[in-house]
Specification:
- There is one protein chain.
- The protein is an alpha/beta fold.
- The chain folds into two domains: 3-249 and 455-475, Aldehyde Dehydrogenase, Chain A, domain 1 (3-Layer(aba) Sandwich); 254-444, Aldehyde Dehydrogenase, Chain A, domain 2.
- The protein contains 16 helices and 21 strands.
- The strands form five sheets. Strands 15-16-17-14-13-18-19 form a seven-stranded mixed β-sheet, sandwiched between helices.
- 52% of the residues are buried.
- The chain binds nicotinamide-adenine-dinucleotide (NAD).
- Nicotinamide-adenine-dinucleotide (NAD) binds at residues 146-150, 155, 173-176, 205-207, 210-211, 214, 225-227, 230, 233-234, 248-251, 282, 383, 385, 411, 451, 456.
Length: 482
């Protein structure tokens, strides 16, 4: 069986850590073995990244030269688009059309930060004497980027592009479930002319490779996307080491339909918002709040829609929902649905694996609708990260806001009503980093993204996403008579 080696300073390396298997969740077959990075591998990678980060060749790159490198990475991604999309879908089972869309979005992230390199400057601050005072923004040095399995294409581009634009070296530690998109990205960066040691990838488990990486004294900043429990552990390490960390964590986002909403449009969004990517999206609208007067109609129409969602192989163009990304994660989802049954919930659709024999070897699970629970039920409080929608009624705005905010999370929210005044009033009261009004899951690289409460710290994307990877330095230039 082939062994995938990770990438350090432009070289493919077979690590001394424990190798692990990448499994195709649609078939249960092994894709390949992947090399694990040991403590010594991590140390040598960080040393090389630290040397590369401080090299004059990298530090003194002019903004337009840095921008052109980022554009070349975007070009490289587009020329290897199919390779990237197939790799992601083979490892996490995402339907191929979604992976293809994510490649173009990921390339666009590099173009956005290329533009930022050339247009975002420092500041001349008001001087209180005979000097010039200015603020410049400098890289941290070595950034450790730890990523999850649901959308490695997007998550990794969102970290690599701004980290490079800001002048850092980066070491990616991708999820064990999706280990190789990051390696392809590092190869593309190398082919684009990024100096050796600036983009590196270490594969391995979180508790070994990931933890070793974030503990290394020469790692000066951590950028993490993943679950809230892991995020808290990462924050503890960052606190002990007194280094900044950005955390993009889980969600339990409310999706709200008022009685006056355009129901067809709202239901399209509700359906995509929870079932796209088999619900394995941090912004999945997993709690659906429906104004009581339209509850029966919404339930009936959703049941009808869910029956028609084509669950199938990721590479079949007719499939709308692929498998769950791993067999282990499907078991977690099954335990959640069992807990809903135990707590008195009514399963209106799904709640089981498909009967289709063609799919029985894969980690498939049907789109699931649950009702009859209160907001205190486990499936209403904890992130399931699967194709499970819980439907909850509300009577009026105050009751709605209280229910929607009754969660530890605060990543996103969607709401549907043509009444703009009400929409804005509710949007301002919801504790979430992103609120969508009469749309859902619209994401733009120019607009900051991140969570309130247990959904995270810091903002990726936009210019905030560039500053995340920089520290400010104030310079006073004296001897000036102005
Ligand atoms: P996870 O927290 O289990 O793992 C994420 C990454 O952390 C993996 O690479 C893993 O190997 C690593 N890791 C695990 N323990 C570690 C440790 N002690 N030290 C260092 N690294 C460690 O998350 P997951 O199951 O891969 O992904 C699903 C989660 O990601 C969901 O909660 C989802 O909401 C979240 N997510 C959030 C966003 C966002 O932008 N807010 C986006 C996508 C996914």
């Amino acid at each position: 069986m082939s062994l995938i080696k990770f990438m350090v300073a432009g070289e493919r390396v077979e690590g001394a850590g424990q190798p692990f298997r990448s499994v195709n969740p649609a078939t249960g077959e092994t894709n390949y073995e992947v090399s694990g990075a040991s403590k010594a591998d991590v140390a040598s990678c960080v040393e090389m990244a630290a040397t590369a980060a401080t090299s004059l060749q990298w530090r003194n790159l002019k903004p337009h030269q840095r921008a052109s490198l980022l554009h070349r990475i975007a070009d490289g991604m587009m020329s290897r688009a199919e390779d990237l999309a197939i790799t992601q879908s083979r490892e996490n089972g995402k339907v191929i059309a979604e992976s293809r869309k994510q490649v173009s979005n990921a390339a666009a992230v590099f173009r956005y930060y290329a533009a930022a390199c050339e247009t975002v400057g420092g500041e001349l601050t008001p001087s209180r004497g005979d000097y010039l005072s200015m603020t410049t923004y400098e890289p941290y040095g070595v950034v450790a980027a730890v990523t999850p399995w649901n959308s490695p294409l997007t998550m990794e581009a969102q970290k690599v592009a701004p980290a490079l634009a800001a002048g850092n070296a980066i070491i990616l530690k991708p999820s064990e479930v999706t280990p190789t998109v990051a390696i392809l990205l590092a190869e593309i960066a190398q082919a684009a002319g990024v100096p050796a040691g600036i983009v590196n990838v270490l594969t391995g488990t979180g508790r070994e490779t990931g933890l070793e990486l974030i503990r290394h004294p020469k790692v000066r900043m951590i950028s993490f996307t993943g679950g809230t429990a892991t995020g808290k552990l990462i924050a503890q390490t960052a606190a002990e080491r007194l280094i900044p960390c950005a955390l993009e964590l889980g969600g339990k986002s409310p999706h709200i339909i008022f009685a006056d909403a355009d129901l067809e449009a709202a239901l399209d969004a509700v359906q995509d918002g929870i079932f796209e990517g088999s619900g394995q999206s941090c912004v999945a609208g997993s709690r659906l709040f429906v104004q009581r007067s339209i509850l029966d109609e919404v339930i009936a129409r959703l049941q009808d829609r869910v029956k028609r969602i084509q669950v199938g192989m990721p590479f079949d163009p007719d499939s709308r929902m692929g498998p769950i990304a791993s067999f282990q994660h499907r078991e977690t989802i099954e335990r959640f649905v069992a807990s809903a049954r135990d707590e008195g919930g009514e399963i209106l659709a799904g709640g089981k694996r498909p009967d289709d024999r063609e799919l029985e070897k894969g980690a498939f699970y049907l789109p699931t609708l649950i009702t009859g629970l209160s907001g205190g039920a486990r499936v209403c409080r904890e992130e399931i990260f699967g194709p499970v929608l819980v439907i909850l009624p509300f009577d009026h705005e105050d009751d709605l806001v209280a229910q929607a905010n009754d969660t530890d999370y605060g990543l996103a929210c969607g709401l549907w009503t043509p009444d703009v005044t009400r929409a804005m009033r509710v949007a301002r009261q919801i504790d979430a980093g992103t609120v969508w009004i009469n749309t859902y899951k619209q994401l733009s690289v120019s607009t900051p993204f991140g969570g309130f409460k247990s959904s995270g710290l810091g903002r990726e994307k936009g210019l905030a996403g560039l500053r995340l990877y920089q520290q400010s330095k104030s310079i006073y230039l004296g001897g000036m008579s102005i």
